[in-house]
Write a structure and sequence with these properties.
By secondary structure, this protein is mostly helical. The protein has a single domain, classed as Cytochrome Bc1 Complex, Chain D, domain 2 (Orthogonal Bundle), CATH 1.10.760. It has four helices and no strands. The longest helix has 25 residues. Bound molecules: protoporphyrin IX containing FE. The site of protoporphyrin IX containing FE (HEM) has 18 residues, from helix 2, helix 3 and helix 4.
């Protein structure tokens, strides 16, 4: 009896995990890099509009905001600049 309840619980957890993954991709049409499943959409020139000056975007990514974590300790200044450069060039189209 107890084992049966556990089996049902396991099945529900597995189902939940599958639904989670499906929703994750459904929320990100085409899986375009930088399309922002959780965060803001970074393509389409948005960052260039919101951060006309690159150092302001570097500060934003270093500090984070709301649920976006800051990357000041995870990335070196050179890495921060590299990823910000990428959002402004490769992703900005
Ligand atoms: C190095 C990796 C990341 C970079 C370069 C980055 C870059 C950015 C930039 C530039 C913006 C501002 C977009 C705009 O307003 O024009 C932004 C916003 C945001 N990002 Fe990220 N992000 C990164 C990682 C993440 C992660 C891991 C998460 C979620 C866990 C996240 C969640 C968000 C959210 C929620 C916003 C909107 C914040 C607000 O407007 O208050 N980001 N991100």
């Amino acid at each position: 009896m107890f084992r049966r309840v556990v089996n049902v619980a396991e099945a529900l957890v597995a189902l939940g995990a599958v639904a989670f993954v499906i929703l994750l991709f459904a929320n990100n049409p085409g899986g375009v890099a930088g399309s922002g499943s959780v965060g803001a959409q970074l393509f389409g020139g948005r960052v260039l509009r919101d951060f006309p000056n690159e150092p302001d975007e570097v500060t934003f990514v270093a500090n984070g905001r709301g649920i976006m974590p800051g990357f000041a300790t995870a990335l070196t200044p050179a890495q921060l600049k590299a990823v910000v450069d990428y959002t402004r060039t490769g992703l900005a189209k």
